[in-house]
Design goal:
By secondary structure, the protein is α/β, with parallel strands linked by helices. The protein contains eleven helices and 15 strands. The chain is 28% helix and 22% strand. The two termini are 38 Å apart.
Length: 403
Amino acid sequence: MFPTSHARIFPFQDKNTNFHSLKANRFFSYTHCIALHDLFLLCVNSKLLNCNTLFLASKFNPMAQFTPSGKSDDRMTEGCDETSGLVVCFGELLIDFVPTVGGVSLAEAPAFKKAPGGAPANVAVGISRLGGSSAFIGKVGADEFGYMLADILKQNNVDTSGMRYDSIARTALAFVTLKADGEREFLFFRNPSADMLLRESELDHNLIEKAKIFHYGSISLIDEPIKSAHLAALRIARDSDCILSYDPNLRLALWPSAEAARDGIMSIWDLADVIKVSEDEVTFLTGGDDPYDDNVVLNKLFHPNLKLLIVTEGSEGCRYYTKDFKGKVGGVKVKPVDTTGAGDAFVSGILYKIASDPSIFKDEKRLQEALYFANVCGAITVTDRGAIPALPTKEAVMQFNAK
């Protein structure tokens, strides 16, 4: 034992919106004028696009496209694996706005493409795209974006019975870009957004109790009432003998301070059975230590309850640590277009494998194969823009491996 330290085209499901008449005009688009205190949606002709507006360069059905890599953005035609256990994902679901060109700052971006996002929701869709069984628990606004997001999850065979809708707060928005220097830049609009307002009383206990794996992040630990709902959901999952999966998904801009982020993330660290962190998150959580030093990882981050700790290294692959063995699985080289959602695709891949075969924690060879599968999932995702639209099907992963 290692030492430890302690394609259905989406309708707006709104009786006042005649969506089908809108989609008849293929050039129809939304332009959003954004103020810090609110978001106003204006329907305009795309000719009004200029430097002071945001042209959402996407069609109404973001799932009905195929990419050169073989990824299908349409609803999966494959059924769920009969042997795959249910993975319930808890947390945020939002709209990502991604620049239509790469290597620019948010201020320099000429236009943005809208894409559904939010790490836990990305993972739920990723698992379903691979043929697994998944559900999402979270809250969106009772607005057009919220209904759109719910419909996209349904299109991807994700159980949405645990979703709730807020009649006052808006669905969250996030602008994200990868600048020329490789740094990711985020700008969030959640003051508050609906995802922050899920209450413990709104939890679907039965859905959590049915899960083989309960997956979550740390963003839902920042604010109330979602924090209390998160902790309550963890108790239900733990009492139901679920495998607890944790991807902190550090977003410092959302926390009051770096210290608050570190304390918040670590406050539930010892509950998890499976943890995935990036090399940058290792450095942050250990106070600046070398993320490539196995002793740092084992002594500061591995805990007695862990079945599997994974440290991802981007295109270089990942390292894995269990109570019985440790090692590294090499990465997959591709030409990246947008790294948004790559980590979520990786998590989808490994949880899909664990849900199908929990015994891989004890078999190093099968674990290595599962981690390579997850690496391929992440690699394929970076070859297209956006998170959910870029997540691969199992067929796409198999085709990639066959090359």
